[in-house]
């Protein structure tokens, strides 16, 4: 102890300070953490505990503490509920179509934009395509309805030209395509940003060397550009997979009426309608909980597959931060 | 090679030019000459995508500004108003449901953004420094990225707090987003340690350091995160659907859904005017009103996007 006291205060490594000293030293920082931590408790961690209603026969007038525990019964009844399975099937179907048809679009756009020679054009294009990301789903669907709906201007034109009406917005069979089109319209431009940034950091000397060796534009794209984007592509894929079960909640709840629950009912809307609207709180919570757990597992699974393939994935990056 | 020099060289071979030289002199020698076919494909792809975004917006704005006669002549939609008028907007602002909804949305957006920025900045700053409990708190936040509590437990919590049918139910649950937190914290980590230490030696408290030194250095990121929050609050639809029953407290997004998507018409009563108005341009005017605030801030913050998003995406 005596020895340590002789060293100058600044040279003492933080770790040797006692806990009490550190709390006293950092009290202002602790005060700063307070609002955020309070928020996390109130609107994240306590609600997570609230998921116990999934294991209860929850009665709103009795509250969580008084309602009877029923174990896994709610999950069993979900298992027997054809509506739940329909919602699950729809979710997976919509997610698959969106993954397949949405995911490549930003990449293709980014490659096309990146090869533009004129910077003015680049900037103009980017300004336009970022915008829809900031519009709400209500607005996006309103715009789609005004454009493609039965009374929308595209159908007005089609009628004028004598083609008759096309029910773009209300046909349950083509709904996955419509939903993907909406997603592309809203977010493809935005998703492009990350690819563009990755493209901008590729060393030009690589292209030059490849060209000197006789590689044409497609070869350069295949052997330089795409490998450079690999990490980013994997990262975005993982995030997307973690999100698979929560495909655009607002998007579907807004269109459930016009397309019908047969095509637009997803796990989240099922939870909402059976729980909040139908008053069957427990089975709604059970569906929601199942969804959350499976989503987290998917994310974790996709990430560990990425690790196996030698990609950094998401979690490692976070530790480095 | 550093990131900046990468960028400049990239710009160079892409042909950055204020001199409007798009020709061969701007292209690296090893690049192929432009090929008419690929150029056509690119023009169709990019031009088509941009038009698909612009045209619907243009039609909506034009129709909202068109006179009733224009709308009837065009059979519902106008690409360019021949007799522009603000009649629809005057009707909407003459009082009643829509005017109130705009006030509600503005209130929620302004108060919510201020509160969310406060929570995010303080938490992000505190966890960006080696501080007691800094690490566990950081993990608490990051865990929220993986898992969501679910709709029903959230509803029960808001109900338990007595916030149903209160505007606070739209504000408080959005007062911190882990994504924005990550962006903010990544930025604070890059503030030089020496700056903070020298301020501390001069006797500044942690609050002073944050307020007088760190925040002025972080204006760009605060602007971007603020915009993300503001857009989120302005666009929030589902929370309102869940927690707000009283039509007097409806935000604009619920009005949009009820009167534009579901096609109920705004009655003369709800508008506080006598003759029933022409609905088409009225509906479009509601759409435009929901659009305006975003279109207004968008150009100012746009140039900061790339940076903010990339930090968030890579580290988040």
TrEMBL record, chain A:
Key word Chaperone present: no
Residue span(s) of domain ABC transmembrane type-1: 88-302
Organism for this UniProt entry: Luteipulveratus mongoliensis
Membrane topology: Multi-pass membrane protein
Any Pfam family the entry gives: BPD_transp_1
InterPro entries: MetI-like, MetI-like_sf, UgpAE/MalFG_permease
Keywords: Cell membrane, Membrane, Transmembrane, Transmembrane helix, Transport
Gene Ontology process terms (BP): transmembrane transport
Sequence similarity: Belongs to the binding-protein-dependent transport system permease family.
Name of the protein this chain belongs to: Sugar ABC transporter ATPase
Subcellular location: Cell membrane
CDD domains from the UniProt entry: TM_PBP2 (cd06261)
Regions crossing the membrane: 29-48, 95-117, 129-148, 188-207, 228-249
GO terms for cellular component: plasma membrane
